[in-house]
Structures are given as structure tokens and as C-alpha cells.
Design goal:
- The complex is a heteropentamer, with 2 copies of chain A (230 residues), 2 copies of chain B (218 residues) and 1 copy of chain C (244 residues).
- By secondary structure, chain A is an alpha/beta fold.
- Chain A has one domain (18-228): 3-Layer(aba) Sandwich (Rossmann fold).
- Chain A contains 6 helices and 8 strands.
- Chain A has helices spanning 4-7, 56-63, 96-106, 113-118, 134-148, 164-179, and strands at residues 18-27, 30-40, 45-49, 71-75, 81-84, 152-156, 183-187, 197-201.
- Chain A has a 5-stranded parallel beta sheet with strand order 5-6-7-3-8, sandwiched between helices. In chain A, strands 2-1-4 form a 3-stranded antiparallel beta sheet, covered by helices on one side.
- The longest helix of chain A is centred in the last third of the chain and has 16 residues, at 164-179.
- Chain C has helices at 9-40, 55-82, 85-117, 125-146, 150-178, 198-243.
- Chain C starts with 8 loop residues before the first helix and ends with a helix.
- The relative contact order of chain C is 0.16.
- Classes of the chains: A alpha/beta (230), B mainly alpha (218), C mainly alpha (244).
- The structure holds protoporphyrin IX containing FE, adenosine-5'-triphosphate (ATP) (2 copies) and magnesium ion (2 copies).
- One magnesium ion is lined by residues 56-57, 156 of chain A.
């Protein structure tokens, strides 16, 4: 991957800044985060931090459009977002190449070479995914992001089970994406060494940390006037 | 869309899956019936069209959980939902892949199995015809049921419970066509009803399935 | 030198490589002689007419359908006890051959049943137990196909073969209890009084010999293919390892 | 051992699983039969014992993949295998849990469903008795099949294919007891055979299942 | 967890040194590591390092007795080992407490308090496991190790999705285990800051790095006389 920058294809959608305003998210009906504000410009990355259980995964799923926000707004829409979660959607019986080609075709093209190059998967291209180690599988999952050709990349703990080299490779791929005007939101517990990265600690926005109404916005039966139910 | 269909077909062949196994289950249900009911030929040929339809329905049913469950577990369904592919299209494709790997082979095999149950000779054509018209409805209804229960771990039995009542009209008309055919009676009315049900299901249910998927993904 | 040496893939390949052409030749001779003799040089039966000639296909394939399973049982046991890879591969190779013979027995039986009993299929215990045997073959082959790792697949299919054999015998008794059938008794038994007449008997013996040889030849051939496939896999792995 | 049994029962109740659903499936198969076969009462009562046995067998079969698959997927089976519990014991317990959540409720419900199929009055006792004796064998044989196919993703249909021929003797003797009972004939011989098969299966198959599990965990 | 040392129960088995001699391991019939030698004394931890796909997971599964070694020996036997893999065996519909109590009873006792304390799970004890975040679930999986009362703890990337506090808590729990004479083998890509830890890089033992027959020991069909197969 001498010049990953040149290799990567153009976006399907013109990058816009990501705006998060007054966002509240809930999981299983329980409010998790509330009053979240953030802005990320093209070319910038946002690192989400927070202790276990603080709501990073829930926030990312909301940004990806997989669950509706309990309150507040997110722009742009879900079709600008590409989401990489813990589950990679990898089919064990297909080869690495077949897995990637499928996602490429879903996104309307057939060019998997840049994705293979970005995560050093060319040597494994014909290996069935079942025969990959944990870290190799993870790389395959991350490579899919390159295929989406979408400007906003959302990652949930992307470096899990990656070794040091692979983490560096990931950082390079994200940097290249940013340089081309892409955006990234990354929930992680470790340090990635990205250059244009801002950090957002979600702890202050935890619903449990907030007083009063905000924490209950998600539940129609949670209002404060308990006497109404008597 | 074609990519999804191609992948699903490829997966079902690779896993040693879909294709052979629904068929094998059908074969086995038909084979077990005489053990349960007794070897009397007259009884068997009386119930043959019904048992063949019931067997095909159960074989279909058993393979329904393949439709979405694997994609749900490994996260692929999340990714398809956030992809440019409309979810309605994905649901329709999934139903088509299911039919190609179960309904079609079942239809082709049913006449051969009719021999085992002493199906009267004039019944073979009608059996095949009724299955050819009815199994698409079974696949689409099943896709809807699978979409409803996709979030439930090991939802297989729950799904059966939801899907089976929905299968009743198709089963009634389908088995009626096969039975009347075997007894050399007029089949036009149930055949028309069967075709109408199938068409309506294929046209409308993918939308319901997509709606159910959206809720489950949330 | 013990017999187990042939369980070494290399030895097996060498010996069967030499033996196979001879086997094929012998098979061709036996089958040609037996079938020609049976079809063209025996009289028609006084009750069954010329349909009786199906016997030259039906009986040998029925016998081989059963014997193939017995062979798989033996090779499975050898694999479980002594862990010779060739043994497991031979069981794998024999299954489709046995299943095909079983299917031929079923099909020729059905063809025969139509003129004899007026029906293609009858739930007679003999016929039915053959159908059950066919199902066992299907399950066995499906299990081989479904499991990636060859040694795991060999172990699991061997266990299935053992348990399945016990249940096949059980089914046979259950079926006899369930329905006393129409089918011929075993008239090949040596002590039986009412053996088929000698005119049918000798060509039938030649046909049976031909089918046995055909079975052995096919199993050798398929085992060789399986061994080569494993060999290719091993070489690919080695190439991958030294490339990595 | 008891911990494992207690947990499995608790899980099957929590998941909205085992208990209700196998039963519901049984109910539905029995209900669908008249739709498939036609509403003629004489025919129905002729095939009632057989269909009830077949329905129970299929309901049992459908719930087999719950036995090990979940524990396999989430790694619990690895952990049980490395725990002080012998794997033979674990297999036996799993079979027992399966029987308690499917075989037992099916046995209790079958007479009630017999009414739907016009089972003759004298048949009810024999139906219940034959199911009570036969379903443990179905659970244990099923556990063996589940152990063989636990490593195969969505092995449900493959398992059916492997397990069904193994079910043949149990089905024949069980249905024979029920049928003879319904026709008020002597049932002693098939009943004895059924009991013998059940006992032998319960005594021996957990060992085969444990062996298969060990291979699969490797 | 003021004094985790005192809280932890005694071992079921007396700790012995862990000896690995000439060990070769294979996965899917493919040799992965060969000629591995290591010795770990009671009170010591062994950190396994190596890039993705080098065979750490395979090695740990072999130590745990889940797969037989292709060659060589491991002492003591599998009943001295407790293994924590990526998959935690957690039942989503049971509560945290019920999950732990089950494993405790499998190991012949009913005392889950030390495990709850060691991983700070007391507050979550009545929460169904389905409602835990990734890191909370991981802590629950790790807490199971305390219940096994076995001297050798084997961990495969234990800190995946743990935040900094939880990683520290994990290190404390392992340290307490070592102080009581236990052993630990830990495959990880990050630094845990354990005191009595030796590091073993598995890279030199990769089967690919070894010449000749050793690398092919696992396969009966790999012998060198290819002409025999023509
Ligand atoms: C699909 C149906 C059938 C199957 C699976 C079947 C199976 C078998 C088997 C397994 C044998 C060898 C048994 C032995 O030698 O011990 C056999 C032999 C024989 N079968 Fe069939 N059979 C079928 C149909 C028929 C029919 C329709 C006829 C004709 C009436 C027939 C006539 C015979 C005869 C004459 C023998 C030789 C008996 C002997 O000499 O041992 N079979 N069959
Ligand atoms: N179904 C549910 N019902 C109630 N609460 C839930 C449910 N699922 C998760 N939670 C809680 O929601 C909170 C947010 O979980 P989330 O997975 O978003 O956290 P996270 O920041 O990603 O944590 P981690 O770093 O551990 O992955 C957690 O406290 C969790 O316990
Ligand atoms: N079924 C299989 N067939 C062939 N090779 C396999 C199979 N499964 C895994 N491998 C290979 O075996 C090697 C060892 O895998 P293992 O999971 O032990 O690595 P690891 O050190 O745990 O890696 P990671 O740090 O990524 O988890 C890898 O190179 C992997 O590609
Ligand atoms: Mg998370
Ligand atoms: Mg690993």
C-alpha cells in the first residue's frame, strides 16, 4: 500500500459536515445518552470515548440509521454513512474475495482491489473466511468500508484483535479517507494516533448523569406527574 | 439485487444446504407416513395428495429460518439495511432464493414420491401443477414470518407457529386441486383460487416483510 | 509385512494402480458373459414370462447395496481403531457406489413389481428396508459433505455408520413385524430346497461376480480420487505455508 | 448435573421456548391434517393414531437443534467440556431436558388432540402410553443426531436427515401400539419392543453422543 | 475490591509448574506452530505475543485440552486449566448472577461473591445479560474464571472492549491469582502491566518458519514422494 490515497475510489455522495444536535439515544427503552452536540467537518475524525456501558455503540447505531434517535437531529442522512460494528457480516463459506465482491456489487460497482490493498488482504484473497484468524477476519470486515464509497465512516472498536501492524494499517486507511474529504467517527478504548482527530467523551451526556426531564425523554410513561396514573 | 440472489444461491449450495436437504426431508416425511399410518394401500392412496402437500409444506417450513437468521446473526442484515438496496427488494430476493432452493426441487420431486404413496395415475399432473402454483406463496409467506421473528434466538418454532395459520388457505386450495385431480374431478375453481393467492402474496408480502425487518433492526 | 501396510496411501496407490486395469477387464468379462447369458440364453419363466430376466440386474445390485454398507461398517471400524486414513477414505468412496446400487435395486424392483404385483411400489418389509437403507446412505453422505475438516468428518461419519447399522437391523425387525410382505424369500441360501432352477442360477452367479468386481473397481477408483484430492490439499497447504 | 438441568429448563422457559412451542407445532400439524386430507370422519379416525405419532415425532425433531446449537455458538459447550462434568453426563442431561420440555408435554397433550381427529375412545390410553414410552427414545436419538451435527451451521435439516431413519423402529412400534389400541387388538408385543428400544437407547446413546461432541469440539 | 487476595477461594488442585515441551499444534489439519518450549512456575504469568494469524488461539485451545496436540507434551492436564476465549458462554436471558451461579455449581460450589467483587459486577448482578454493553459482558465472562478454582488461567485477548479502569481491574485480579500461587497464560496485543510476567513471542515457532518435515507432521498425505500418487 505505497500510495493508498491514489488507489481509493471517489465517493458516491459529496461529503458534508456531520451535525449532531440535541441528540438523545435509548436502548431497550432505557435512555442512555441525552443532549449530545457535535460537529465534524470533512477531513476530520471524531474519537468517541467513555467507559464501558456509557452508550457509544448505541450512539453509533443511531448515526447509522439503524435505530431512530429518541430526540434531536443528525445530518446528513443514513445513506452517507458506512457502519462497521462488532459483527462483520462475513460469510464463513465464501472466500475473502467473494465476500468483498458481494458488498461491492451491493454498492453498485465491482472494484475490490483498493479494499484488498488497504488492509493487506491480497495474499488471503482465495482463502475461505472460515479459515481466517480473529485479526484476519477483522481486517476483512474493515476492508468492506472502502467498498461502500460513502463519506462518513462509523467504527465501533475497530482495532479489537488487531496486532500492532494492523492497527497502523487501519490508521493509514482512515487517514487516507480523511485526506480525500471523508469523515470518521470511531469508538475506541485505545490510542490510534490519527492526525486530524477530535475526541468526544460521552460521559457528561449520560442520561443517568443528567437531572430532570431529559433523562426520561425516551419513555412516554415516565413523565414526572405521577399522580396522573393513580 | 442479482448480487444478493447469486450470493444466497451460492451459500445454499456451499453449505451443503438448501437444495438437497429440503428435498431429503420431504422424502423422509413421505416415507415415514406409511410407518405411522400402516401399510394398507387403499388408505395410503386415499390420503396421498394430502400427505404430499403437507410434507412439502413442512419441508418448506423447516428451511425458512435460513432466510434471514444467518444474515442477522453475523450482522449482514444490518449492513444490507444501510446499503443502497431497498429492503423490499432484499426481502423479495430472499423469497426467490428460498423458492429456487426448496419450492422448485419439491415440485419436481413430488410426482416421484407419489409412487410411494400409491397416488392414482391421473393425479400426478395435478399434484405437480398445484405445487408449482402454491410453493411460491409458501416461500413468500414464510419470508414474512421469518422477517417477523428474526430477532428471536432459535425462533424456528415460534416462526412455525406464526406461519402455519397463514399457510392454511394455500394448503386447502392446493391439496384440493391435487385431491380432485387424483379423483378425476373438476379442478378449475380451486386452481384459480390457488393462483390468485399466490399472485397476491408475491405482489404484496415483500412490503410487509420489509416493514417487519425495519422494526426488528431497530 | 502386515496387511496394514496397504493402509499407507503411497502403498495403496501403487498396488491399486497395478490392479485396476485387470479388475476392469475381469469386470467387463463377467458382466458381458453373465448378462448376455442371462438375457439371451435362458428360457422364459412359465409364470413370469421374460420379465424374470430383470433378476440379473436386480439381485446382484440388491446384494451389493447391502454389502457396500457392510464394507463401510468394517472400514469405519478400522478407521476408529487404527486410524488409517485410507480406510476412512474408502468408506467415503464406497457410500455413493452403494447408494447407487441400492437405487438400482429399488428401480429394477419397481419395474418388476409393475407386471408382477400390478403396482410400482408396495410397502413390503424387504422393499421398505431397502428404502430405509437408502435413507441411511443419504444421511451418511450428507454428513460427509457438510463437514469441512476431513478427519472430523471421518470420525463423525464412522460413529454414524456404527449407530446406523444397529438401527438398520432394528428397522428390519420392526418392518417384518409391521407387515408380512409379498417379496420372494431368500432363495439363494445354500441349504434351501426350492432354489431357483439351475438354468437361471448359473448366469445369475456370474452376474453377481461381475457386480462384486465392479463394486471393488469403483471403490478403488474413487478411493484413489479421494487420496489424490487430499494430496492436492496437502500440497496447497504446504505451498501456502512456505509462501506466507 | 442438576445445575445443568435446572439451567436448561430455565432457559427454555425464559426464551418463550421449548415448552409451549413444540406443543403448538404439534397442535398445528394435527389441525392442518384435515385441511390436507379432507374432512371425511371415517378416513380421519382411521389415520388418527398414525398422524398423532407422526406429528409428535416432527414436533420433537424440530426442537432438536436447541439441544446443543446455542451452547455451541456462545462457547458454553467448550466450557462445559473443560469443566469437571463428564461429557456423557452432560449429553444425558441435555436429552432429559429436551424430553421434559417436549416429549412430556406432547404425551400429555396428545389425547386432547386425538379428539380433533376422531380417535376411537379405546385408543386414548394406548396413544398416551405409547408416547410416554416412545418419546424418551426420540429425545435421546435426537441428542445423538444433534451432537453429530453441532459444528454445522444451520444443521437443522441435515440433522433431520440423519435422525429420521434412526426414528423408524420407534415410530413403527409406537404407532403400532396406538393403532392396535384404537382397534382394540392385542398390544403386548409392540409395547414390549417399544419399551426395549427406549431402554436401550437411553442406556447407550449418551455415550455415542459424547463421543461425537468430543470430535466436534476438537 | 479492597483486598481481593483474601476474598478469593482456594484452588481445587494444587498448582504445579506448566511445562510445554516440543509442542506442535495444527488447525483445520494445517500445522500452525511447532517445536514450542516453555515453562511457567506457580506465581508467574506468560504473555503470548505474535502477529495476527500466528497461532495464539490455537495454542491456547490446545493447552485447554479442547484439541489434541499434533506433537509434543503439555503438563499438567486439562483439569488444571480454566479457559476464557472470545466466546464467553453467557446466556442472554439469564441475569448476571444466574450466569455465574450456574458455572459455580458446575464447578461444585455456590460461592459467586468473590467473582462479582473481582470484576465489579455487584451493581449489575440482577441485570439480564442481554442488557449489558460489550465491555460489561466481557467482565462477566472474565469473572467466570474466578469460579473455576483452577490454578492455570488461560486468556485469549481478555481486554477486548474493556475500558482503562476495567483493564486495570483485570490486571489486579490476575495479580491476586498469581500471588496465591496460580499461573496465567495470556494472549494479548496490548500491554497489561503485570509484575511477574514473562513474554513469549510465538513468531519463531511458526510452522512456516521451520524447514522440512516438522512443518508437515500434521498431514499423512504430505509426504515427499509425489510420484507415488500419479
Ligand atoms: C423396489 C423394490 C424391490 C426391492 C428393494 C427388492 C429388494 C431385493 C433384495 C434386497 C433382494 C436380495 C435378497 C436376498 O437375496 O436375500 C431381492 C431379491 C429378489 N427380488 Fe427383489 N426387491 C424389489 C422388488 C422385487 C419385485 C417386484 C420382484 C418380483 C416379483 C422381486 C423379486 C426378487 C427375486 C426373485 C429375488 C431373488 C430372491 C433370491 O433368490 O434370493 N423383487 N430383492
Ligand atoms: N436491552 C437493554 N435494556 C436496557 N439497557 C440496556 C440494554 N442494552 C444495553 N443496555 C445498557 O445501555 C448502556 C449502553 O450500552 P452500549 O452498548 O451503547 O455501551 P458502550 O458505550 O458501547 O459500552 P462498551 O464500551 O462496553 O461497548 C449500557 O449501560 C447497557 O448496560
Ligand atoms: N480451518 C482452517 N484451515 C486452515 N487454516 C486455518 C483454519 N483456521 C485458521 N487457520 C489459520 O491458522 C492460523 C492460526 O490462527 P489463530 O486463530 O490461532 O491465530 P491467532 O494467533 O489467534 O491470531 P489473532 O491474533 O488474529 O487472533 C491463521 O493463519 C489462520 O489463518
Ligand atoms: Mg460497545
Ligand atoms: Mg486469536
Amino acid at each position: 500500500m505505497s500510495d493508498p490515497d491514489a488507489a481509493q475510489p471517489p465517493f458516491d455522495i459529496v461529503p458534508e459536515p456531520l451535525c449532531i444536535a440535541g441528540l438523545a439515544v435509548a436502548r431497550g427503552g432505557v435512555p442512555v445518552l441525552a443532549g449530545l452536540e457535535a460537529e465534524v467537518a470533512p477531513g476530520e475524525a471524531l474519537i468517541l470515548r467513555g467507559p464501558n456501558g456509557s452508550g457509544k455503540t448505541t450512539l453509533l447505531r443511531t448515526l447509522a440509521g439503524l435505530q431512530p434517535p429518541a430526540d434531536g437531529i443528525v445530518a446528513p442522512g443514513a445513506d452517507a454513512m458506512a457502519y462497521a460494528s462488532h459483527a462483520d457480516g462475513i460469510k464463513a463459506t465464501l472466500t475473502v474475495q467473494e465476500n468483498l465482491r458481494f458488498w461491492a456489487r451491493i454498492h453498485g460497482h465491482a472494484e475490490i482491489a483498493p479494499a484488498l490493498a488497504a488492509f493487506d488482504l491480497a495474499a488471503l484473497a482465495d482463502r475461505p473466511a472460515a479459515a481466517l484468524s480473529a485479526g484476519q477476519k477483522r481486517r476483512l470486515g474493515l476492508a468492506r468500508m472502502v467498498l461502500t464509497r460513502r463519506p462518513v465512516w462509523l467504527f465501533d472498536e475497530p482495532t479489537v484483535s488487531l496486532d500492532r501492524d494492523a492497527v497502523a494499517r487501519f490508521a493509514t486507511a482512515v487517514t487516507a479517507h480523511l485526506r480525500r474529504g471523508g469523515l470518521a467517527v470511531i469508538a475506541t478504548h485505545i490510542d490510534l494516533g490519527l492526525p486530524h482527530a477530535r475526541t468526544l467523551d460521552v460521559t457528561p451526556f449520560r442520561a443517568t448523569a443528567l437531572p430532570g426531564k431529559a433523562a426520561h425523554a425516551a419513555d412516554a410513561f415516565g413523565d414526572d406527574d405521577g399522580s396522573a396514573y393513580l | 439485487m442479482i448480487a444478493l440472489l447469486a450470493r444466497d444461491l451460492r451459500l445454499s449450495i456451499r453449505a451443503g444446504g438448501g437444495f438437497g436437504l429440503a428435498l431429503a426431508f420431504f422424502l423422509i416425511v413421505v416415507t415415514l407416513t406409511p410407518f405411522a399410518v400402516g401399510p394398507n394401500t387403499a388408505t395410503l392412496s386415499l390420503i396421498a395428495p394430502g400427505i404430499l402437500w403437507l410434507g412439502a409444506l413442512l419441508a418448506c417450513l423447516l428451511s425458512l429460518d435460513r432466510i434471514f437468521a444467518l444474515d442477522w446473526e453475523d450482522g449482514a442484515l444490518d449492513l444490507v439495511a444501510t446499503s443502497p438496496l431497498p429492503l423490499e427488494g432484499a426481502a423479495a430476493i430472499k423469497a426467490a432464493a428460498h423458492w429456487l432452493t426448496t419450492g422448485l426441487p419439491l415440485t419436481l420431486a413430488a410426482p416421484a414420491l407419489g409412487v410411494l404413496l400409491n397416488l392414482p395415475p391421473q393425479g400426478f399432473v395435478w399434484l405437480a401443477l398445484s405445487l408449482a402454483l402454491g410453493t411460491p406463496a409458501l416461500s413468500v409467506i414464510g419470508t414474512f414470518g421469518a422477517a417477523l421473528t428474526v430477532g428471536v434466538k432459535r425462533g424456528g418454532l415460534l416462526m412455525s407457529l406464526i406461519v402455519l395459520p397463514l399457510y392454511v388457505p394455500t394448503l386447502i386450495f392446493g391439496a384440493e386441486v391435487a385431491r380432485r385431480g387424483a379423483e378425476a374431478q373438476a379442478t378449475a375453481t380451486p386452481l384459480a383460487a390457488l393462483a390468485a393467492i399466490s399472485l397476491a402474496c408475491v405482489a404484496l408480502l415483500p412490503f410487509a416483510a420489509a416493514a417487519a425487518l425495519r422494526v426488528n433492526l431497530r | 509385512m502386515s496387511i496394514w501396510e496397504y493402509a499407507n496411501p503411497t502403498k495403496f496407490m501403487r498396488v491399486t494402480g497395478v490392479a485396476l486395469p485387470w479388475l476392469w477387464a475381469l469386470t467387463a468379462v463377467c458382466l458381458t458373459v453373465g448378462l448376455t447369458w442371462g438375457f439371451f440364453f435362458t428360457p422364459d419363466d412359465f409364470r413370469q414370462g421374460s420379465t424374470v430376466k430383470i433378476i440379473y440386474l436386480h439381485v446382484p445390485s440388491a446384494l451389493m447395496g447391502i454389502n457396500a454398507w457392510l464394507m463401510m461398517l468394517a472400514t469405519s471400524l478400522i478407521w476408529l481403531i487404527r486410524r488409517h486414513h485410507v480406510s476412512a477414505l474408502a468408506a467415503k468412496a464406497a457410500a455413493p457406489v452403494g447408494a447407487t446400487f441400492t437405487l438400482i435395486a429399488l428401480a429394477t424392483g419397481a419395474l418388476w413389481g409393475q407386471p408382477m404385483w400390478g403396482t410400482w411400489w408396495e410397502w413390503d418389509p424387504r422393499l421398505t428396508s431397502f428404502l430405509v437403507l437408502f435413507l441411511f446412505y443419504l444421511g451418511y453422505m450428507a454428513l460427509w459433505a457438510a463437514i469441512e475438516d476431513p478427519d472430523t468428518a471421518a470420525d463423525l461419519t464412522s460413529v454414524l455408520c456404527l449407530v446406523g447399522s444397529v438401527f438398520a437391523v432394528l428397522s428390519r425387525y420392526a418392518l417384518v413385524f409391521w407387515n408380512q410382505g409379498l417379496h420372494q424369500g431368500a432363495s439363494l441360501s445354500l441349504d434351501a430346497e426350492e432354489n431357483v432352477a439351475d438354468v437361471f442360477w448359473y448366469p445369475l452367479l456370474v452376474c453377481i461376480a461381475g457386480f462384486v468386481l465392479l463394486f471393488v473397481a469403483l471403490v478403488f477408483l474413487r478411493t484413489r480420487t479421494e487420496i489424490r484430492a487430499r494430496r492436492i490439499k496437502a500440497l496447497e497447504t504446504r505451498a501456502r505455508i512456505s509462501a506466507a
